[in-house]
Amino acid sequence: MFYVYEHIRKDTLTPFYIGKGKDRRAKSLAGRSSYWRNVVNKAGGYEIKYLAEDIDEEFAFLLEIEAIDAYRKRGMNLVNLTNGGDGSSGYKYSPETIQKIAEKNRGLKRSDDSKEKMSAAKRGRKLPEETKEKMSAAKKGKPPNNTGKVYKMKQPFTAEHRLKMSLGRRGRKMSPESSLKKSLATKGVPKSEETRMRMKLAQSSPEARAKQSERMKAIRAMQKLQKQPAELTHNLSLTAA
Question: For the whole model, what pTM was predicted?
């Protein structure tokens, strides 16, 4: 049988965590997040209060969700990374429970603090090889999520921004594996008639060549400024005098 519990700060006697478990889970320190540990350290410890005992797991999940929702509506700052109803011990939800959990989480907008807690909890976590293989198999044969999407820049990059991007990539060497993957990914991919036309116009149009020439001049000028900023400033001050 399961239970639902809350952890209470020793300094303020306010709840800071709601959980569901069985056996010694409420007293266990294993698997606690860094945020949970920070609160316990600052509060000088914690106390345990059981909200319900000797209940089945499905009811424990629902009660955990309801308790977290009620406490947060009252303005309590819980360190729970989710809204509850997860972390099951091999249990399979009934369709009714799945629907209730989905309705509770639908349309929920997490705060920046909650997002940071969830991100920190996952940071550095390595997926087991079995999980990676399952994820890979699930995506095989499916088109990428961005298929058919057209991305447009709000405004073109300035010459200074392009120079910074160029300097940031300078010196980077692609590994042989990455080079091979990139080559295989583009090899044999036919270009659309529109793409070929654009490439042809970009190479043959005097206006396009003039624009490219201007861009290169601007980049070279920026590179010169980067190399000799002090000398240039000195020369300008002499000219102004």
Answer: 0.40
